[in-house]
Write a structure and sequence with these properties.
The chain has 548 residues and is an alpha/beta fold. It folds into 3 domains: 85 residues, Gyrase A, domain 2 (2-Layer Sandwich), CATH 3.30.1360; 197 residues, HUPs (Rossmann fold); 120 residues, Isoleucyl-tRNA Synthetase, Domain 1 (Orthogonal Bundle), CATH 1.10.730.10. The protein is 51% helix and 13% strand. It has 18 helices and 15 strands. A hairpin with a 2-residue loop joins strand 3 and strand 4. It binds one RNA strand of 77 nucleotides through helix 2, helix 6, strand 10, helix 15 and helix 16.
Length: 548
RNA sequence: GCGCCCAUAGCUCAGGUGGAUAGAGCAACAGACUUCUAAUCUGUGGGCCGCGGGUUCGAGUCCUGCUGGGCGCGCCA
């Protein structure tokens, strides 16, 4: 980043002195060493404006480039490209930068403490979390971490859907299972819950309430059971998420919105602005006026409110809590809600750009080559807990964010468990452990670790060393990419390439050795590598074991 | 039917705001441990970027029409 920035600034400097303004200069790393380390194609873009050939422009710019830090070895013109070759000393600046900034390397202060909310998982309290929730959980938590790295004050929130018919069905299902356990006739409602876990809840309910529960009125009994089932399931979810390394700042219940009459408030705002109307005895929101494909019902003809109105109220409440940016992480099956929620945010009077739903595609579980079937109806879903028990937190988190959220994810349980090169988590963690091991070795040999931080890096001249330094240089820039594109999978890919660079270096060059200058310089590089892997794993919420 | 997502090596996937000869890993084959962790490394082969048009100096990337797969289109929650 510092090097790329340096090149960019040098080019910009020439343009400004030539009175060419408002031109964006993009400097890229090259893929081919033939083209140097960094390149820019700005001359192509200037060609039309200046009415000169890209080649001539490139030559003119190249001639005027200043190099106050003496980092540029040579500049070559190829067509309209300006290719920059840096000297090896340039890359030493990167190592120094990392050793100075340490755990702050790659952080930015773009957010300046602005309040951002990331709401994710938000599974209904009607059953244990499943693997789909796992992807949403990992994605949301990592994005929240990224926002923190960019200087935002982030709140993680879980929305608890504790109202509605589903909870009544849950209570009825539990009651049926209780009767079953008592050897009575029972019937699980058609749309009820059939999973094994319902029996577990029924069993604990019998223990907790005893026979007295049957003396209550039907209504009273179901109310008790509903509350009991809900709290039980919520505690499961909380445990699962804790095992998954996720802690929410706030568990926000839908019932709170009803108690505070936020629904009425939201409805009033929409009404007063004239965005509602009555038809067929229902109250409608004219969401098509804000780009939705059809208008939506807020209050049904029987007088009850829709889930959508509660959602509008929920988002009104979020804005009232002072968040400047609101992110909702939704599964692909919620795509249909994007347009209407955007519409309602705008109708309430807030900037729809500050509301950002992020959609992730579904997860397919595999075990070796074969797909693991999931069925919601029979309740035989693979739970997040089972997955965590089998592959562990680190592999689970890593695998869930390893792919573009827009792409479906094939999650191979066997691969996630395997302790081999095939498994990218182990590959990256192993690189970290090797770094740590080198430090341990160094200490055993009585080497002065403190000297590493201010050693002479000039003996780092090997291409393998330079490759690592170039990757390390890229870290902050890569994080910007991750941040702006909401694309954590680029971080995992980055860590794998850094680990690869390190393993190559480790295998072919001796680090701890007779030549002390070289040894300290290489240890400095190891130290920088270790730091960057650590920073990256921290963002992912994956542990960095010192020994494996 | 309409909206959105996806399609890149045999497999799983990378390829910010368009840039040079499209990259990894796995699998296959051939090699490397008396020495800092072989959970590693080195080398080889492998491609009409789903198909057809268009935009321009330049397209895997942008626009458009198809094909195939996934998801969504309730006065459900």
């Amino acid at each position: 980043m510092i090097l790329k920035q340096y090149i960019e600034d040098r080019v910009l400097d020439v343009l400004i002195k030539s009175d060419i303004n408002n031109i964006e200069v993009v400097v890229d790393r090259t893929q081919n060493p033939e083209f140097g380390h960094y390149t820019t194609s700005t001359p192509f873009n200037l060609s039309k404006i200046l009415k000169k050939s890209p080649y001539d422009i490139a030559r003119e710019i190249a001639e005027k480039i200043q190099d106050p830090l003496a980092l540029i070895d040579k500049i070559e013109i190829k067509g309209g490209f300006i290719n920059f070759f840096l000297n090896t000393d340039a890359f030493h600046l990167v190592v120094e930068d990392i050793l100075e900034k340490k755990e702050r390397y790659g952080r930015f202060n773009e957010g300046q403490g602005k309040k951002v909310q990331v709401e994710f998982v938000s599974a209904n309290p009607s059953g244990p979390l499943h693997v789909g929730n796992g992807r949403g959980g990992a994605l949301g938590d990592v994005l929240a971490n990224i926002f923190e790295w960019f200087g935002y004050n982030v709140e993680r929130e879980f929305y608890v859907n504790d109202m509605g018919n589903q909870m009544n069905l849950l209570a009825l299902s539990v009651e049926a299972r209780m009767r079953e356990l008592l050897g009575e006739d029972f019937e699980i409602p058609q749309e009820g819950y059939h999973g094994e876990y319902v029996k577990d809840i029924a069993r604990s309910a019998l223990e907790k309430f005893g026979n007295g529960i049957w003396n209550l009125s039907e209504e009273e009994r179901l109310k008790e059971l509903k509350e009991f089932a809900e709290e039980t399931i919520l505690s499961w979810q909380r445990e699962d998420l804790a095992l998954f390394g996720i802690r929410f700042d706030c568990w926000y219940r839908e019932s709170t919105l009803h108690k505070n009459n936020t629904l009425g408030e939201a409805l009033e705002i929409l009404k007063s602005k004239g965005y509602t109307y009555e038809r067929d005895g229902a109250i409608w929101f004219a969401s098509t006026r804000f780009g939705d494909e059809k208008d939506r019902v807020l209050v049904k003809s029987d007088g009850s409110s829709t889930y959508f109105l509660a959602d509008i109220a929920y988002h009104l409440d979020k804005y009232k809590r002072g968040f400047s940016h609101i992110i909702d992480i939704w599964g692909a099956d919620h795509y249909g809600y994007v347009a209407r929620m955007k519409a309602s945010v705008e109708a309430l009077g807030y900037d729809p750009d500050t509301f950002e739903p992020i959609i992730y595609q579904i997860v397919h579980l595999f075990r070796g080559g074969s797909a693991v079937r999931m069925s919601k109806r029979t309740g035989e879903m693979v739970s997040l807990r089972e997955l965590l028990d089998e592959v562990g937190k680190d592999a689970a988190r890593y695998f869930f964010v390893m792919r573009d959220p827009n792409s479906q994810l094939d999650f191979d349980i066997e691969l996630a468990k395997s302790q081999s090169i095939n498994n990218p988590v182990y590959y990256v963690q192993y690189a970290f452990a090797r770094c740590c091991s080198l430090f341990k070795q160094a200490e055993l040999k009585g080497i002065d670790i403190g000297r590493i931080d201010h050693c002479d890096l000039s003996c780092l001249q090997d291409p393998l060393e330079r490759d690592i330094m170039m990757i390390l240089e890229d870290f902050p820039d890569m994080l910007k990419n991750v941040f702006y594109n909401r694309a954590p999978h680029r971080l995992t890919a980055y860590l794998e390439s850094l680990a690869k660079g390190f393993h190559s270096f480790y295998n072919s060059l001796r680090i701890i050795q007779e030549n002390e200058d070289l040894m300290y310089a290489r240890m400095a590089l190891v130290s920088a590598t270790r730091q960057v892997i650590k920073n990256g794993l921290d963002i992912l919420g994956v542990s960095a074991p010192e020994k494996m």
